[in-house]
Q: What sequence folds into this?
């Protein structure tokens, strides 16, 4: 039997090798159609910058044709890889074995639960309600009924009215960022009014205490000739009364002079109506900036249109998260506290009270918070570890909630009418489980029990601290098989992000599981620019300090090679969205260090980033080319402008969705064109194009299976699978050690 298995493995490896050689020969003969060059020269504060592909930003017929041709070419290349179709099937099987996925789990009075669930056979999330955790669930919203032809429909947001059975929900068609807002009576399962069009799918609403009206964020329709960068400007908050035409909805906050509370064109306002409080909050965010301005007014006056808004928090107070309990507002602030602190403000007196004794900033970084009937609940992290804390309102003394499983806790929901939160625990070795806390105990909801697949997989987590270029220690998480041989020959996929103060949270999914079962290792670089150590870690990788982000990543790659986990020929770099800055600059700074790279819907041209439709809101994070002090940093972090002719770059797969609302397709397209024209390595530079949204955001399961299978097949191809490294068809026996 052993010899038969070896023969079978050899046949697979031989097929992989022959097909890969044929694909490489085909690639060498035809590198795809090169992008036309039309040089535009800009002058920024006396410095000339050449851009050979500016026309792609304008979505000209020439640009659109080239991008679609690249999609077809990439499909032909990846389609010739022998493992591609098998991997797509394998991802589906693994995903189905792990069971349903959940979002927005809320516990309602009467022991009811409302949640979005995607079952193994579903392509998208559906909304369910159930009475008690052991009661039968009832389907409330099925987005499939909104499909238009081949365009998928997805459930993007859910807003339950706390005072009756009404629920507002947003539906997006064809992965569009413009959604329709529906109002339904859950007791009948029927919509009760005409949907509101052009509501931003990821903007929030909140219900009034009358249970018949709500406040929502809406963007105006773009006028003829409007530029892409105007797409997310001039947002307004309006009050809608259920049953009335939305055209008459009253303006509450906006950039016009007749708004009761004025905001700037680039800002996104909202009105929050906290349960159990007589106060309403007017909250204004400035693009992607985490800090916010907060106003307060009496709820009844807000509803009557006579609100006397008063500012209680300004941007300079550096407050991020917010939650209200009665007369008190709790928040997370990093003002004079680089690791963060919890503050408490009296809404009636506007007086800030004791904050530093709630959480010691030297030990923990508060990440999120929520107010329940009994206490304030806070998740706090220290590097790659995190805790769930319970802080009673009377004592303000933090006590740690003991978690039943290892991982990072994340709050799902709290409710002023009930004790404790609903939360999940995320891990690198199993999919997340959903818990609730009450009566001093943590309860497993069993909404998503651990699958047999997860129980069978045995993985080891190794945490390391890597000295970066300036001596700063950067956390590196390595997830691998037990007793992994450090022989410089392991396939390692190194991933990172490093923007917006967003931490690299534990994740476990079918893509990762497929990689593990093929013998791969995943390494996670917790680089500066993220939030692992609070705002100081974020600022240490922002703007003028942004090079720390990719230099930390390079240091982690060098560590993996130095400690013999892998070698450059077996190392792949990966990052999505703003992680494109990280990976793009890592491969342009050290092209010799990686065999391949994946950039998913990635930001690669930061000089022009603010001129895309989602660009203006990102100025607080990256800066603007309109300021002399910001331009050098933007040029330095722009991978597109650091591609050099005649350089031996690694193989690169760039992916984009034509309906991406966050990173315009021209960004990965320009990077692909520039890399292809410059690279002297002979390795492929591929641009994968589909009709989905922003990487996994807005994508259906089928779209994700196709995307991740292509990603895995590309990685295997470029890492040169040989007969002794052929991937097994089943999960290998592994042992777990923590």
A:
């Amino acid at each position: 039997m052993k010899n038969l298995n070896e023969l079978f493995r050899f046949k697979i490896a031989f097929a992989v090798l022959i097909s890969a050689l044929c694909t490489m020969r085909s690639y060498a003969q035809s590198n795809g159609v090169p992008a036309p060059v039309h040089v535009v020269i800009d002058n920024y504060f006396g410095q000339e910058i050449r851009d050979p592909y500016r026309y792609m930003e304008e979505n000209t017929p020439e640009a659109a044709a080239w991008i679609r041709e690249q999609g077809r070419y990439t499909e032909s290349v990846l389609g010739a890889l022998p493992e591609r179709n098998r991997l797509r099937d394998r991802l589906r099987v693994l995903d189905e074995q792990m069971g349903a996925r959940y979002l927005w789990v809320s516990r309602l009075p009467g022991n009811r639960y409302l949640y979005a669930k995607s079952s193994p056979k579903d392509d998208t999330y559906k909304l369910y309600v159930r009475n008690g955790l052991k009661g039968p669930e009832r389907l409330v919203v099925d987005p499939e009924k909104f499909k238009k032809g081949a365009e998928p429909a997805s459930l993007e947001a859910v807003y339950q009215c706390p005072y009756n059975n009404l629920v507002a929900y947003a539906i997006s068609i064809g992965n569009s960022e413009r959604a329709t807002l529906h109002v339904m009576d859950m007791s009948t399962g029927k919509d009760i009014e005409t949907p509101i069009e052009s509501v931003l799918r990821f903007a929030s609403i909140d219900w009034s205490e009358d249970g018949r009206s709500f406040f929502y964020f809406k963007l105006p329709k773009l006028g003829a000739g409007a530029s892409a960068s105007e797409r997310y400007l001039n947002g307004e908050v309006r009050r809608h009364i259920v049953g009335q035409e939305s055209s008459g909805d009253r303006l509450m906050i906006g950039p016009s002079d007749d708004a009761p509370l004025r905001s700037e064109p680039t800002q996104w306002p909202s009105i929050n109506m906290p349960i159990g409080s007589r106060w309403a909050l007017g909250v204004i965010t400035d693009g992607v900036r985490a800090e916010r301005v907060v106003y307060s007014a009496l709820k009844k006056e807000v509803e009557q249109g006579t609100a006397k808004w008063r500012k209680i928090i300004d941007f300079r107070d550096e407050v991020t998260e917010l939650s209200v309990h009665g007369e008190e507002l709790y928040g997370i602030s990093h003002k004079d506290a680089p690791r963060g602190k919890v503050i408490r403000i009296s809404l009636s007196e506007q007086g800030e009270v004791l904050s530093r004794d709630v959480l010691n900033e030297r030990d923990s970084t508060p990440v999120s918070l929520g107010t329940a009937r009994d206490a304030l609940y806070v998740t706090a992290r220290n590097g790659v570890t995190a805790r769930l804390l319970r802080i009673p309102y009377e004592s303000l003394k933090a006590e740690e909630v003991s978690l039943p499983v290892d991982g990072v806790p994340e709050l799902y929901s709290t409710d002023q009418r009930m004790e404790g939160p609903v939360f999940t625990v995320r891990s690198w070795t199993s999919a997340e489980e959903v818990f609730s806390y009450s009566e001093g105990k943590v309860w497993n909801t069993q909404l998503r029990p651990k699958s047999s697949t997860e129980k069978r997989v045995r993985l080891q987590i190794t945490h390391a601290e890597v000295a970066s270029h300036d001596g700063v220690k950067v956390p590196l998480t390595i997830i691998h098989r037990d007793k992994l041989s450090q022989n410089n020959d392991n396939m390692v996929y190194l991933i990172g992000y490093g923007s917006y103060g967003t931490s690299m949270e534990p994740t476990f999914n079918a893509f990762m599981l497929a990689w593990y079962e093929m013998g791969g290792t995943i390494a996670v670089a917790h680089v500066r620019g993220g939030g692992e150590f609070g705002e100081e870690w974020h600022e240490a990788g922002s703007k003028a300090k942004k090079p720390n982000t990719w230099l930390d990543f390079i240091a982690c790659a060098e560590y993996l090679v130095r400690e013999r986990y892998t070698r450059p020929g077996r190392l792949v770099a990966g990052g999505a969205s703003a992680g494109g800055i990280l990976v793009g600059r890592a491969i342009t700074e050290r092209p010799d260090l990686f065999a391949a790279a994946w950039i998913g819907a990635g930001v690669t041209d930061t000089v022009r980033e603010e001129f895309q439709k989602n660009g203006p809101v990102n100025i607080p994070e990256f800066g603007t080319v309109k300021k002399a002090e910001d331009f050098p940093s933007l040029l330095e972090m722009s991978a597109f402008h650091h591609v050099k002719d005649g350089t031996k770059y690694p193989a690169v797969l760039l992916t984009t969705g034509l309906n991406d609302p966050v990173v315009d397709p021209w960004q990965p397209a320009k990077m692909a064109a520039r890399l292809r024209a410059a690279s002297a390595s002979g390795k492929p530079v591929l641009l994968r194009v589909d009709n989905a949204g922003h990487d996994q955001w807005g994508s259906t399961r089928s779209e994700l299976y196709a995307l991740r299978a292509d990603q895995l097949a590309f990685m295997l191809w470029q890492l040169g699978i040989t007969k002794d490294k052929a991937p097994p068809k089943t999960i290998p026996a592994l042992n777990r050690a923590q």
